[in-house]
Please model this.
Amino acid sequence: MTPKAFKDPAFNEADMRDKESIVRGRARLAPRALKRLNLARIRSLLSVDEAVANAVTALERAGELDETYIVFTSDNGLALGEHRYLGKDRLTDEALDIPLVVRGPGIPAGTRSSRSVSLIDLTQTLVQLMGLSPTLVTDGETFAPTLRNPDAPGFRDTMLIQTGAKDRRAEFPGWAYRGVLTQRYAYGRRVNNPPDDGFLYDHHSDPHELRNVLTSQRYRGVRRELERRLKVLSDCAGSECNRDFGPLPRPGR
Model:
């Protein structure tokens, strides 16, 4: 089986000169070794399938399945050679885009939504679905309305994205990258490196994230506004983390 990543234009990206310093000089990865790794990962998921099947069977026998919410997701994605990288500690689409499937009472079967949500929204969503009230401040927002109606309006236009650092002596221990994601743009930078050691991708013209426009004069206004939003969301709490900032400047403005 040939991994989908091998057919992605970003796989073993031809020109890495515009990427962040930590990956700029990386050599191309060996497809054969990546194919073996991918096959091993797929095979390991058989035990997950069996565990889910056993849980569903147990709920059916107990008469509880129709009253139970089941959530299938992951804590992160994984680059499998895209941008010459293997792993999860970068803020590329491969690491950020994860599955999220929810079934349960009141959720129409087979519906889909392209709305972006975060794992921090799961707590608020499950709390609302179960009719509970949290006693602590939560940064997420419920997407229960979207589960019931895929066309329900969203509650934020900009999402904080971040990934961890292994160096606990860093200025901000625990974060290697921080950035923001909108419907059109992905923006982020290395936390302890110069401001230009990062990325800005325009998904409208570059869905595979091959052209970093971070230092492009045409995107200067976009970058400035995304950096402002990053600073706001990096130090927010509660409802302040779920904001509609409004339209971004157009490229060239």
